[in-house]
Amino acid sequence: MHRYEGARAAVVGGSIGGLTSALLLRELGFAVDVFERTPEQLDHRGGGIVLQPITMRWFDGRSARRIDELSTHSSRLRYLGTGDGIVHEEPASWRYTSWGTVYRALLGDFGRDRYHLGEHCGGFQQHAETVELRFVSGRTERADLVVFADGIGSTARRRLFPDLQRTYAGYVGWRGTVREDALSPRTHALLADALTYSVGDRTHCVLYTIPGMDGELAQGRRLLNYVWYRNVAAGPPLQELTTDVRGVECPVTVAPGAVQRRYVDELKAAAAAELAPAAAEAVVRTERPYVQVVCDVRVPAMADGRVAIIGDAAFAARPHAAAGSAKAADDAWALYEHLGAAGGDIPAALRSWQPAQLALGNQLLDRVAAMGTRSQVTNTWEPGDPDLRFGLRGPGR
Ligand SMILES: Cc1cc2nc3c(=O)[nH]c(=O)nc-3n(C[C@H](O)[C@H](O)[C@H](O)COP(=O)(O)OP(=O)(O)OC[C@H]3O[C@@H](n4cnc5c(N)ncnc54)[C@H](O)[C@@H]3O)c2cc1C
């Protein structure tokens, strides 16, 4: 592996993709700084993540933390029907974590000294040997390599491809978590050891158990996490739903506590009519459900000189394969391997890294779009169909 001692890398975006990248670049000898726009530490974002091996590869030997102490496990795949009847069940081993649990663990390994909060990158410029980054705070930085891991609204993507738009999928994910001990014993028993689906007419809800808000793994203190996909017409209906309680339009996420009350009330009323009773109970008992707009984004290129774009900044995939964080981590690991093999020529490493990651992103987007169509449009989401299983590179992989 080539060592980049004396070289500097900057990572824009301090979430899972950004922190994984930062840790790996530091392993190659770069002096690495991470710039995250959010002013406060992000560890209370609570959403669930279904683990793919690549998401947790950092914890497989390079960290003092172990995967099993950062995640929950279930052993069954189960589809519930009317009256909670089991319409399909098979053995299936999956691990789950929460965004906050992985974030805290990655940040613990990276350290706070070079993790800069409240730094929103507004633009950049490439020079012959460096990249200059400009922040809205007035700060400027120069680096030999810049990795943009700045998510679905990426500054780099908008600068490099100004005409590229994200495409609304036609539905949103309603998300929420409930503490296990707030569920009835019957519902807890039914959902605790399974990846559970409740499928309705052009809709489906997926539920699984994740660590508690502070990473707790004890039964009762863990959280039941769900995503319920519901069709919402583009235009005024979507615009109104994504206008938060302050009257501000939120095109990507309407945060917990910020969704208008009447939409939360409608969600809870619809749950009883459209979902299996156990899934409906989870939705009804959620204090602050929130909305994520499901979109497709794909870039024509991920490398430009000394700039790399990874994760959701490059490809935002519908969540049906549970592979978004895995794609971000895969981009970071592949970049690490190409830089290590490139003998110190950063632009050449980025050029050789790009083709396989572009192909992976395009394949993932095509596959999850087809999954979304089966659920939300054609109503052909069949319990147990292997094509509908999770995986970054195809079902189970
Ligand atoms: C409903 C739903 C369910 C999902 N479920 C799963 C799942 O089960 N498993 C899974 O693997 N994935 C899942 N995902 C996808 C996953 O959340 C994303 O793919 C993943 O978070 C992408 O990581 P990232 O690091 O690329 O970007 P992000 O997590 O979006 O992070 C981007 C970071 O950059 C920061 N930032 C943005 N702009 C700037 C700027 N200009 N300057 C500085 N900082 C900036 C942001 O504040 C943020 O911290 C799901 C997504 C949705 C919508």
Summarize the structure.
By secondary structure, the protein is of the alpha+beta class. The protein has helices at 16-27, 99-110, 155-160, 185-191, 236-241, 261-274, 277-284, 324-341, 346-376; strands at residues 8-12, 31-36, 48-50, 72-80, 86-98, 115-117, 121-126, 131-135, 140-143, 145-148, 167-179, 194-200, 203-210, 223-231, 253-254, 290-298, 303-304, 307-309, 315-316.
What do you see in this structure?
The protein is an alpha+beta fold and 397 residues long. It has two domains: 8-64 and 100-166 and 296-388, FAD/NAD(P)-binding domain (3-Layer(bba) Sandwich); 73-93 and 168-294, D-Amino Acid Oxidase, Chain A, domain 2 (2-Layer Sandwich), CATH 3.30.9.60. 29% of the residues lie in helices and 28% in strands. The protein is built from nine helices and 19 strands. It has helices at residues 16-27, 99-110, 155-160, 185-191, 236-241, 261-274, 277-284, 324-341, 346-376, and strands at residues 8-12, 31-36, 48-50, 72-80, 86-98, 115-117, 121-126, 131-135, 140-143, 145-148, 167-179, 194-200, 203-210, 223-231, 253-254, 290-298, 303-304, 307-309, 315-316. The strands form three sheets. Strands 3, 4, 5, 11, 12, 13, 14, 15, 16 and 19 form a ten-stranded mixed β-sheet that branches. The protein has a six-stranded mixed β-sheet with strand order 6-2-1-10-18-17. β8 (131-135) and β9 (140-143) form a beta hairpin. The longest helix has 31 residues, at 346-376. The radius of gyration is 21 Å and the shape is globular. The mean pLDDT is 95. Bound molecules: flavin-adenine dinucleotide. Flavin-adenine dinucleotide (FAD) binds at residues 12-18, 35-38, 42, 48-50, 55, 120-121, 149-153, 155, 173, 175, 227, 292, 311-313, 319, 322-326, 328. Flavin-adenine dinucleotide is lined by residues 12-18, 35-38, 42, 48-50, 55, 120-121, 149-153, 155, 173, 175, 227, 292, 311-313, 319, 322-326, 328.
